[in-house]
Each structure stands twice: as structure tokens, then as C-alpha cells.
Amino acid sequence: MIKFVNIFDNKKDVFVKTKEGMQVFENYPWHFFVDLKDAKSNKVFFQDLLDSGYVKDMKVEGEYVALYCPFLERDNVIRQLKTQGVKTYEDDLRPWQLFLVNEEVELETDQSILFFDIETDDRGVGIEPGRDPILSISAIGSDGREFYFSYRPEDKNGELKMLRKFVKTMGEYDILSGWNSDSFDLVAIATRINGREGFFAGYNSILPRGKRIEFRCMVIEQGSKDLGGLDSVRRSGKYKTKPIDFNHLDLMQKYKEMHYRDTELIKKVRSFSLSAVSMATLNEDKVDLHGESIYKIWKERPDELRTYNMQDVRLLVKLDKALNISFQKLVEHQVCCARLNDYTSHGKIDIFALRGAKRLGKHLPSKPERVERDKRESAEGEPKGNEDSDYAGGFVFEPVKGFHTNVYALDYSSLYPSIIKTFNVSIDSFKGVTQWEEGMEFPEDTIIMPTGAMFARDEIGIIPSIIQFVLDSRNQIRHVDMKKMEKDSLEYQNAHYRQYAFKVLANSMYGIMGASFSRYYKRELAEGITLTGQYLIKMSAKWCEEHGYQIIYGDSDSLYLKKDGEVDLDKDAETLKVFIEEHLRRLFNIKTCHLYMSSEGKFDRFLAIEKKKYAGIHPDGEIKVIGLEVKKRDSLPQAAAWQQEVIDSFLIHGETDSRFYVSWVRACVNAVKNLSPKEITFQKRLSKEIEDYGKDNKNGRAQPIPVHVKVAQWVKDNLDKMGQKDDKINLYSQGSYIEWIVTSSKNGIVGVHPLAFDGHFDIPYYVDACLAPSIRILTSVYPKIDWEEVISGKDLQRLF
DNA sequence: GCTCACAAGATACCT
DNA sequence: ACAGGTATCTTGTGAGCG
Asked: Are A32 and A67 in contact (CB under 8 A)?
């Protein structure tokens, strides 16, 4: 078993970095696969490939033939196979990927880390990594050593010398780790050394003394549309890095990944600045510079800069220790058999699945060729649902809007993985699509879906097998291994992270089957899963209605049910489970039912406002709020505060007298004119650079510029007024939050930055804006009351 | 020149 | 480079009207 720290190739040899040193596997025998039957039916063609020397060797492996050829000649060979119409498997794998799939390897979790942080010249307009000189770098190793690199203004080559010293130190550790370093610190270092394309040179202590190695680190532009998979939470900055032969761990990125669902926290830390996160986690802040420029301090009081710079790294080390970020990350990547640098969902799951397939003696399709596609464009002019673009997802019930009591929640646990297992959904077990109708005839050895997609019944497919393996492993860890361990021990922590990684893997399988760039993609399968989900939740809803429940709401895999009097939800859920199992067996010929609907508790009081917007209170007093404005970071603070009051009145106090709310609204209307600037300040995130807004939309017209972008432009033009820049995130670039107050709404919204606010705001506009979220709740409960009139006071006027 | 319905983008949520 | 579904707010356009 090789424990690797990192692995990469030069398209020929594979380099495996371990704790002991670098192992080189020269001319790693690169290969890919075709079906044996294809090789048999194209005998002459395959013989020609061998004779011409393009393919060096062929070996029969079960149902496949492995074709050996140098990776560099790959394109040529594959083109010929494509022309001949031969399907290939795994032809896209780089030598290092193939190595991970084939060999006995595991990621080393015991890796040394160098935490670091840089300070840059801040005299220019804004902050742009790579443009401004780097003034200092602090670093702390996981072994406790502290480093500080800087130079004096007089030293012409000071910066480059400093960077080279740093890179040398970096080579003494396995991992380089910073905060937002993927978009800032590392971009700056790589760019300052070698320009945008650049790699940077250094010494790797693992190699024999004196032997030089280049640390390659690409600097690439981040797509403006691409939000990185974590909705809008992930990206900041224009560039990011792609380190090749050293490990890099951006703690901010992983921290976001761990917390992106926690809307409460996101509201607190907003852009996930080191300062905000340290405050939230450690209750400790960065050193306050009182608005003084970094450059000035560097020039005049270098010791002070050192203190400041060092404090940031100390925070990093403390955060990692408190939250175990790097350890969790290492364990997670070890479970996936992924390199530390391959952090995308697809990158992490791919090698894991390929290894899983190999264990079963099977191979997975090659990645589809890159198709330039734009979902929106394909929808224009022609009917929606283009060949392989969009497909339907989960079903959302129209809520029965208003205030309810005695609401029960039912939930399919892991609906999509369960469907995959139950219907044996997999690329290799797929038998085509037919028209399905109740009671139709179809082959006995086939499972069918409500969409008509058919799958082999007896031989379990690769994907369901992997899911089964993943869930079995997870259960083994949770219910057996962890029981024997001491809580809070290192091995317990390790086990906990392992089981979590398995859970994530199981839940990601559906996603990659719907991702058109992945080797697992098949529209019929992805849509089969979602539409079967729709079928199941609708059928369950029907069953519940027939058993005395009223459907209040439901989304994809959940149902919210109302029933007064005695209710034994667990018993009903069990009966429903049996019903569904029998139904699926009879109509779809399934073999084993893995679907399980369980009770998610009761709500004494429940507000159904809109699709994806509701709130409820459990008997123990715990309140659950979903999707409402109080949970959104772009909500007006006062609007959220007032909406919270309404929610509490209904759920905690059970107040249902409409007169209470009418007078409450009147009081709010009167209070608007006295609101403080903070309460009426909007905030929204810039999801791309200012220049990228206002381009032509799909109708060929210039897209209007949103208010927050106009204000961002003002910020850019008035940077001198903004005071000290917070952290690495520019005040007006992709990822920044923009604040504004509305001063006029007569001819379009006019927003001004809080710093330009003179105290006059558009009161009528704010009356609407502050009350809208509350009014939406009140309208859903009391649809007959004209709340517009209550706000305008017309209902009062009528009385006089 | 006004109102109004509508399309489309942008953001941030939910499962 | 995991997926789709949805509400809400904003601006610009074009129809209908006087």
C-alpha cells in the first residue's frame, strides 16, 4: 500500500510524492478499454491498429479489451476508434488518475502543513492580486516553527528574493494552507514570480539535496457565470489557482463548504472574511490598523506589520485547530481516494467510482466530448426540453396557504439514492425507454420506471452497487466501529469524518448522473430518478388523503399533513411503506424496496406562506423557519425584524386575532420615518465584476444594470472615502457585498451608499419595502383583509 | 406621456 | 463543472389609451 501525499504526471511518467520521498513510475503503461465484442467484430481494424504501432498491446480482461498506447498518442488512436464507431471506456484518464484507479494507494492523512498569509502594497486603486507588490509573508508550520519574510523599500530585488525564500520553506511541508488563498495569496505569489501563466520555482526537500523542482501553479480566470456549486456563497476574486505539484488547502473554501447551508452563520460572517469567521468562532479579531495603510506601516514601522501579519496566521492555526478543517478534509479525500487539490464534487467522486467499478470487473464510459452548451439559448424558439439539456426535477406542492394547527411531517430518507437502488438505475443496467402504462406487459427480467425507463432486474448495476457499498461502509462505521471507540479520541473523530464522507458520496451519485459533462451522464436515468420521485411523493400524498390527512404542503421528498385528534404517525408511515412496496412490486417489478418514509415530527402551529416558504413550531418549542425573508441575507434588516415579530406572534403566542395585526401594521407604518440608517440599508453580493453587467441579453438588448451594481460603481469611484479595506476582498469586485439606501423611487430606484447618505430616504418606498414580507404572511392568513388599505390608512379614513 | 402586463436577469433560497 | 424548482425585486419594452 502506497500512502501518497500528492500524485501527478508529465503525460508519461507518474510521480508519487510520499512522506519518504518521490517515487517515479517511468512510462506508466497507459491504457483504456473497449468492449470485447467490438474487438471481435472489428478484428481487421484492431489488427491494423496493432500493426501500425499506434497501439502497443492489447489484453483481454473479462468483457473488455485493454488497449495500451502512449498517452501522448491517445488522440490519434481514439479518433480512429470513433470513426470506426467503437465505444471506448475511460479513455480520458490521465496517467496519474489511472494509477490511482489501479494501484494499492491511499491518501496520506498525516501531512505537515504550512499556514501562511501575505500583505500587499495597498496604495493602488482597490486590491488586485498580482498587480501590487507583496510586502511580507508570515507562516506557521504544523510543527510549530514560525517564519516571517519581508524586505526593505530600498532593496530593488527584495520582493523576488523574499518570494523565493518562501517557496523554499514551502517545500519543507506537505501542504500549503491559507485563507481565501486560492483566489488571493497564491494568485499573488504565482503571478509576482512568473506572470499570469506562471509556475514558480523552488526546492523540494523530499528530493535528494540540491535537486531542483519546479512548483507549478497555474493562475486561471474564474468564469463569471460559474458560481462554483455552492450557490452564491463560494466565489470571490477574479482569478484562482491550480497548483500541480504541491498540495494547497484553502481553509476558507472548506469552511464555506462545511457551513454553506447555515443561513444564520452566513448572515453573520457574510463574505466569510477571516475577521468575521474568527470573531464568530474564536471570539478573536485581527489586529486593528485604525485605517492606516499597510504600505505606510511596512515602510515606517516594520515590526508592527510583522505583528499584524503574524496575528492573521495565528488565527488560521487556531481556526484549523478549533474546527479540524484540514483533518476532515484529509480524511474525506482519503475516503474518496482523491488528491487534496481535487476539491470539486465530481473530482472527488470520480476515482472512487472508477475503483468501485473495477472491483466489480467493469469499466465506466469515457467522458463525453466537450459540448459548448447554453441551456437558455437552446430553449429559445423551440419547444422546451431539448434533447439533452433540461430535464424535470422534484415536485413541489402548492401550499394550502395560511395558519394551521396539528401539522405532521413525513419525509423520504435519502429519496434519490433509494430510488437508484430500488430500480437498479445505472448506465450498465439500462435497457432503454418504452411507454409505460399501468398493467402493461414487459419482460420478466426487467424493472421499469413510471417514465418507461427499463433496467435489468437481476444483475445489480455499477452505481447501485457503489451506493450499497458506501451505505454499508457508513453503517459499519456508525453502528459498529464507532461504538467501540472512545468519544473525542482521534480515531473517533476520524471515523466520524469517514462516515460523513460516505454519506456525501451516496448523495452525490444522482447529481453526477445529471451532469452533462460527466461520464455518468444519461438524461433518461437522471430524469427517471426525479420523475419517479415525483410519482412516489404524489402517490404517498394520495394515500395520506385517503387516510384522513389534508396535504398542507410538500417539496420533493417531504409532506406536511394536517389531522386533528389522535394520530399515530409512525404506524401510518409503516402502513404506507408496506403499501408502496407492494405497489412498486406489482406495477414495476422491483426486486427489493429500499424506500423508507419516516416521521419528522409534529408542528403545533404552522404557517404555509408560499412554495419553499413556511414556518412551524414543534411541541418542545423549537421553531423551524424555511425560505422566509428572515432567513435571507439580501432582506432589508427592518423587513426581516418585523417579519420575525409576525412569525413569533403566530407561532409562539398563537395570536390569531386579525385586529391585533391591523393595529400592529399601523404602528409599523408610523415607525418607518424614524428608522435608523442601519435598519434601512440593503445589501447584495456582486456575483461578477462590474464591467460584466449590462451586456446584451438573449433578446439582443442591453440588460439593465441592477441598483447594487450602480452603487458598486460609485464605491469604485469614491474609494478614498471608504476607509480601511477589510481583508482580501475588494470593495467593489466579484464577491463583495454592496450596501445602499434608497433615496428616491419615482423614476427608477435611486440607491446611495451609506457613506453618501444625508438622512433623507424615500419613506413611502420604505413603508412598502419594510412591511412586504410581513404582509405576505398576513395575506396568506387573512386573504379577505385589504392590507394595502391598512398600510395606506384608507380603511381608517372611511371610518370618519 | 401615461399605465399595465410581460419578459428577463439577478440573487438567494429549498430539496 | 453534481442536479432542478421557486419567490422576489428590478428595469426595459411594447400595447393600449387619451
From this structure: yes
Closest alpha carbon to C1' of B9, residue: A703
Q: What does residue A663 show for φ and ψ, rounded to 5 degrees?
A: -75, -30
Spacing of C-alpha A268 from chain mean position: 19
Q: What is the DSSP letter of A174?
A: S
Q: Which of left, alpha, beta for A91 (phi over 0: left; psi -120 to 50: alpha)?
A: alpha
Query: Which window residues (602-631, chain A) lie with Cβ within 7 Å of strand C?
Result: 609-613
Q: Closest nucleotide to A371's CA, by C1' atom? A: C1
Nearest to A7 by CA among A354, A352, A339, A347: A339
pLDDT for the residue A797: 64
Using the C1' atom of nucleotide C10, identify the protein residue whose alpha carbon is closest.
A706
- Alpha-carbon distance of A374 to A566, in angstroms, equals 53
Residues 6+ apart with CB under 8 A from A536: A412, A415, A419, A580, A595
Share of chain A above pLDDT 70, in %: 92
In this prediction, residue A244 carries a pLDDT of 82
Rounded Cα distance, A435 and A449, in Å: 10
Cell of A742: 434608497
Residues 6+ apart with CB under 8 A from A182: A240, A241, A248, A250, A252, A253
Torsion of CA A273, A278, A284, A287, to 10 degrees: -30
Question: Is beta strand A2-4 parallel, antiparallel or unpaired with respect to A105-107?
Answer: parallel
Type of residue at A506: A
Which nucleotide shows the minimum CA-to-C1' distance to residue A395?
Answer: C5
Name the residue among A674, A666, A686, A779 with its Cα closest to residue A733.
A686
With a threshold of 0.70, does the pTM exceed it? yes
Q: Which nucleotide is nearest to A370 (CA to C1')?
A: C1
CA atoms of A50 and A58, how far apart (whole Å) = 8
Which residues fall within 8 angstroms of residue A232, CB to CB, at 6 or more apart?
Answer: A685, A687
Q: What is the CB neighbour count within 10 angstroms for residue A592?
A: 10
The confidence band for A724, taking pLDDT boundaries of 50, 70 and 90, is: low
Q: DSSP for A73-139?
A: GHHHHHHHHHHHT--EESTT--HHHHHHHHS-EEE-S---EEEEEEEE---SSS--TTTSPEEEEEE
Contact at 8 Å (CB) between A118 and A136?
A: yes
Spanning CA of A750 to C1' of C8, the rounded length in angstroms is: 19
Amino acid at A68: Y
DSSP labels, A637-699: HHHHHHHHHHHHHHHTS----HHHHHHHHHHHHHHGGG--GGGG-EEEE--S-GGGSS-B-TT
What angle, 0 to 180 degrees and rounded to 10, lies between the N-to-C axes of helices A415-423 and A523-546?
110
Residues A305, A150 contacting (CB under 8 angstroms): yes
Q: Is the CB of A688 under 7 A from strand B?
A: yes
Spacing of A745 CA from C13 C1' in Å? 20
Helical ranges in A461-620 per DSSP H: 462-475, 482-484, 490-513, 523-546, 569-588
Instruction: Determine the pLDDT at residue A725.
Output: 56
> C-alpha grid cell for residue A580?
408502496
**Is the distance from CB of A604 to CB of A619 less than 8 angstroms?**
yes
Residue A419's pLDDT is what?
Answer: 98
DSSP string, A748-798: S-EEE-GGG--S---HHHHHHHHHHHHHHHHHHH-TTS-HHHHHHTHHHHH
Closest nucleotide C1' to the C-alpha of A688 = B10
Asked if the model's pLDDT at residue A388 lies above 60, the reply is no
DSSP A565-608: S---HHHHHHHHHHHHHHHHHHHH--SS----EEEEEEEEEEEE
Helices and strands, counts by H and E, chain A: 26, 30
